[in-house]
Amino acid sequence: MAERNEAAMATTETGRTIRIAAVGDLHVQEDAQASCRDLFREISREADVLVLTGDLTNLGKPREAEILAEDLRACTIPVVAVLGNHDYESGAVEDVANIVRQAGVHLLDGQSTEIKEVGFVGVKGFVGGFGSRMLGSFGEPAIKAMVAESVSESMRLENAMRQVHTERTLVVLHYAPVVETVAGEPLEIFPFLGSSRLAETIDRFKVSAVVHGHAHRGVYEGRTPGGAPVYNVAMHVAKPTGRPYALLEI
Ligand SMILES: [Fe+2]
Ligand SMILES: [Fe+2]
């Protein structure tokens, strides 16, 4: 059953609503027993667009990306994706990205794309923590570099948002923009699960919904301080569909 989103539905005076299937953290492995083909076939029947919210591969190996690309042949709808931290692990992120792009995926890394009158804006995001407890730019250069990376991802999101002129917009992230959807993870790792800087940027724009992954033990639904609906669609998170993917009507 589709998740109906009031904020999104309110923006659909022009154009037909589209059904978006969103799932994160596939963590495709070389020696995995299960393939994603059946899942992609099912999603192609249920939705108009598939969104993958990062950690496409388990260790960022090109071979893992090739397996995903082969499985994506079973997907007959457009695919939008961002990368996750795992896709960087083997130092071959350019190869992974190229393989995924060659499979026809709209891989967003600070860009936007428009499909069926909906704008998709994607950036990986980064760590840093939430609210008034966010890591600040103080002290050692390594800490300042970490905060600078977090700020940079938010600015890249902002630049991509400025390029979108659609009535309806979905923001696609890997890291969480709000603390609500990471609840259930150990408290000690909250600062490594996302950053409120992303939500601050999102709230400067009109956004239909936000999807992210990364917090495997988080919860499905949250909201930015400005009211934009946020969904943690990591495949391990329980969703209204009862399936590994969420369905959003936008
Ligand atoms: Fe993950
Ligand atoms: Fe991750």
From TrEMBL:
<dbReference type="GO" id="GO:0009245">
    <property type="term" value="P:lipid A biosynthetic process"/>
</dbReference>
<dbReference type="GO" id="GO:0008758">
    <property type="term" value="F:UDP-2,3-diacylglucosamine hydrolase activity"/>
</dbReference>
<dbReference type="InterPro" id="IPR016538">
    <property type="entry name" value="UCP008292"/>
</dbReference>
<keyword id="KW-0378">Hydrolase</keyword>
<protein>
    <submittedName>
        <fullName>Metallophosphoesterase</fullName>
    </submittedName>
</protein>
<dbReference type="GO" id="GO:0046872">
    <property type="term" value="F:metal ion binding"/>
</dbReference>
<keyword id="KW-0479">Metal-binding</keyword>
<dbReference type="Pfam" id="PF00149">
    <property type="entry name" value="Metallophos"/>
</dbReference>
<dbReference type="InterPro" id="IPR051158">
    <property type="entry name" value="Metallophosphoesterase_sf"/>
</dbReference>
<dbReference type="GO" id="GO:0016020">
    <property type="term" value="C:membrane"/>
</dbReference>
<dbReference type="InterPro" id="IPR004843">
    <property type="entry name" value="Calcineurin-like_PHP"/>
</dbReference>
<dbReference type="InterPro" id="IPR029052">
    <property type="entry name" value="Metallo-depent_PP-like"/>
</dbReference>
<feature type="domain" description="Calcineurin-like phosphoesterase">
    <location>
        <begin position="18"/>
        <end position="217"/>
    </location>
</feature>
